[in-house]
Amino acid sequence: MGARHQQHAGIHRFGVPLKNTLVYYGDVFHTLLHLPIHRFVAIFFSIYIAEYCLFALLYLWQPDDCIEGVRHFANALWFSVQTASTIGYGKMAPSQHCPGANSVVMVQAITSSLVDYCMMGVVFARFSSPSKRALSMRFSDSACIHRGPDGLWRLSFRLANMRKHLLMQPNVQVLLGVPDGPGRSSFAFEELKLEGLLSSLTNIKLGLAATLTHVIDAGSPLWRLSVADMAACGMELLVFLDGVDSTSSTIQVGW
User: Fold this and answer.
1) What single DSSP character describes residue 182?
2) Which of 25, 45, 98, 213 has the most CB atoms less than 10 A away?
């Protein structure tokens, strides 16, 4: 017998007041860190374009003789880009007799540096996130229930490390979730003991594929239950793998 793994998109929240969603804006770093890549790229470009346009308006409001070569918004925009990126082509420059224009240049230099440092930090954090390393830990598509040589039924699934980098200090936890609230709003969890866990963890540590097995005996919460019974009561099997990558980053994989 076998039960196919169903990948869930995650927790869906509904009925949350709008004011409670403002917490995402209070934690901008982690919001940007976990955004989908297309939304992150759009926000990345929007931040820089907004900075260039804002300071272009400030330059445009300066007297005509304060910034050489700036007469229209397009000129001010290119001057803003050159100031923020320290390009300095040499055709447009603020006059030393206009403290207002030079003050705006100074503020933009500081602001652009701050924006660069923040965005570089977020980009580096996204590239170095251990969640990407977790994607190389692959579980089998199905969990199988089979009878062992001793006559007892067993629940088994496989786990493999697709990369050559070793995973140190691996730990596997298998939980059985049973709905105990209205509309499956909450679950009661019970841990399933694994047979030969030391051997399985050693295989994972060595970069080998491992078969994780739970014996369905009288002490198991799955005792005398069929796959149909499990599906009828809404049981879910959760597997968590924790470990430390060679870069000393802690990763966690869920199945």
Assistant:
1) G
2) 213
Cα–chain center distance at 124: 13
What are the structural domain ranges in the chain?
A: 19-128, 134-254
- Give the C-alpha separation, 163 to 136, whole Å: 6
Q: Which residue shows structure tokens 């866990």? A: 197
By the 8 A CB rule, do 167 and 203 touch?
Answer: no
Q: What is the pLDDT of residues 158-196, one digit of tens each?
A: 888 887 777 888 888 888 888 876 666 677 888 888 888
H-state helical runs in 27-178: 28-33, 37-60, 73-85, 99-127, 130-134
Q: Tell me the pLDDT tens digit for each residue of 11-36.
A: 666 666 766 666 666 778 888 888 88
* Arch. (CATH architecture) of 19-128: Orthogonal Bundle (1.10)
Mean pLDDT of the chain: 82
Task: Give the number of C-alpha atoms closer than 13 A to the C-alpha of residue 198, restricted to the C-beta side.
Answer: 0
Q: Is the pLDDT at 53 greater than 90, yes or no?
A: yes
Reported in sequence order, the residue ranges of 127-249 that DSSP labels E, i.e. its strands, are 137-139, 142-147, 153-161, 168-179, 187-192, 210-216, 236-244
**In the CATH hierarchy, which fold is given to the domain comprising 134-254?**
Immunoglobulin-like (2.60.40)
For 78-124, what is each residue's pLDDT tens digit?
Answer: 999 999 988 877 778 888 888 888 999 999 999 999 999 999 999 99
Question: According to the model, what pLDDT value does residue 191 have?
Answer: 85
* CA–CA distances in Å: residue 226 to residues 3, 155, 207: 11, 11, 33
CA distance 101 to 89: 18
The answer to whether residues 76 and 59 touch, using CB atoms and an 8 Å cutoff, is: yes
Residues present in the chain in total: 255
